[in-house]
Amino acid sequence: MRISREHDTRRFDSTVAKLRKRVSQRFMDRFVIQGGHHLSGTVTISGSKNTALPLMSAALLTDEPVQISNIPDLKDITTFSRVMAVTGTSVEYNRDNGTIRIDAGTLNNPVAPYELVKRMRASFYMLGALLGRVGKARVSLPGGCAWGPRPVGLHIDGLKAFGATIDLDQGYVVGSAPGDRLPGGIFKMEPSSVGATVNLLLAAVTAAGGSRIENAAIEPDVVVFSEMLQKMGAVIHGIGTPILEIEGVDKLSGGNFYNCSDRIELGTFMIAAAISGKPGDEIAMFNAEPRHLGDTFLDKFKETGAEIRTDGSTVYVKTPEKLSAVSVTTEIFPGFPTDLQAQWTVLLACCDGNGKVRETIYPDRFKHIPELRRMGINAIVVGDEVVVEGGGVFQGAQVMSTDLRASVSLVLAGMVASGTTYVQRVYHLDRGYENLEGKLAGLGARVVREQFDEWADPS
Ligand code: UD1
User: Fold this and answer.
1) What pLDDT is recorded for position 1?
2) Which of 260, 261, 369, 456 has a Cα-to-Cα distance from 290 of 20 to 30 A?
3) Which pLDDT score is estimated for 317?
4) How far is the CA of 241 from the centre of ligand 1 (A)?
């Protein structure tokens, strides 16, 4: 009798949870885009999302307050702040000046719960940070991802190589260090991983001994993060190279730090300027760090015929009369960034001639293609490549966001399409683009956000 009542209660709770989720999903924001309006003017690039997350994690390694400026106002930042707060850390974000203040002096609960980790994979940085700070951690394993499997085996194998004991308990990774302090060790990662490099650095900088990471990621996110650790008192040799050597230190200190500018947002606006600017005119992008895009993107971009001029931290893009198709292959830094391939696909559709995008980092990352095809873009996925026919005339349509970068490619397509495009479920965009509609509207695009009833009867 008791068992069946408990069973009923569980079923009831689960039904209520499902209903709540459905109701909360009923009204969602969408973008309504009137295509065919030229962009012009200036835009300011926000702080980098992918760098902000490791920088915030670094603050967990010290019991002194840390302040980081140029933090973008994004859903991922809010989610990660909540993950950090679960540990007993105080996190205060000031929206007005983009500064975050983190005080992990009160950290007393080394846990990252499933409910939050499932929303953002980078929450897995908590594993390295908590092992580094208190020598123990209970962190939910992230689930799958919209564009296929994204393993964390390298994070775990690396931490084991540095002396952690790792067990799996009900979907959680439970890590511990002997005597609450990792001894350190040597780990070679294959392939090179941004996330695993960040996690291993977090764990190694306060280890009892030295560590070595071979084939470490050299993405700017990792470099800026390593430099912050250094300023906090960490000893890291080889920053910006694939071999990182770390001498563990007893203590790190807090202080004031600055986040770099978002290279993927910059690349996205550069592509927007190339396809949607007025031919012959320049669009200026302030607070930019173009070298963070890597030489391949910059070279390929120039090959299309778009011109780039840099003055300090301002990038000017001159829209060409016509764009030439340039094929790209995604690679680790300084190769073409995978986070810009969906946007590049739209650029190819606007070019003279046909081009290809080959994806080597995440071979399944093509969820945007069926949506772009609904707008009349002739793009076909063949294995790990997408072949794009240029010169097409595309039309507005109702399309659905599937992930962050896929969503922005739909927005770009909507800006050059004829008629109206409705991009549904823009909560994906809100994870990583700060005030995208405001910035595009400031450049002259006709983009508005509105609430949309996904259950509405179309009849
Ligand atoms: C980061 C970025 C993401 C970007 C990606 C690649 C953040 C928050 N996210 O993700 O926007 O698309 O870099 O530039 O910074 N791999 C393994 N085993 C692992 C970990 C990774 O095989 O344990 C593989 C992945 O499947 C992928 C490659 O390594 O093929 C690179 O992934 P990784 O650099 O780890 O990406 P993330 O850090 O998750």
Assistant:
1) 44
2) 369
3) 98
4) 18
Ligand 1 contact via 361 beta carbon (within 6 Å): yes
Contacts of 290 (CB under 8 A, 6+ apart): 263, 266, 298, 308, 310, 315
pLDDT in tens, 5-17: 667 777 777 777 7
Cβ–ligand 1 contact at 158 (below 6 Å) = no
- CA–CA dist 348, 351 (Å, integer): 5
Looking up tokens 């966001």, which residue turns up?
A: 401
Every domain of the chain and the residues it spans: 26-46+261-453, 49-258
For residue 128, report the distance from its CA to the centre of ligand 1, in Å. 16
Of the options 3.40.50.720, 1.20.140.10, 1.10.10.10, 3.65.10.10, the CATH number for the domain spanning 49-258: 3.65.10.10
pLDDT (tens digit per residue) in 311-359: 999 999 999 999 999 999 999 999 999 999 999 999 999 999 999 999 9
C-alpha 304 to ligand 1 mean position (Å)? 28
Catalytic residues: 145
Tokens representing 272? 């927007």
pLDDT < 70 regions, the chain: 1-6, 20-25, 143-149, 457-459
> Alpha-carbon distance 71 to 98, whole Å?
5
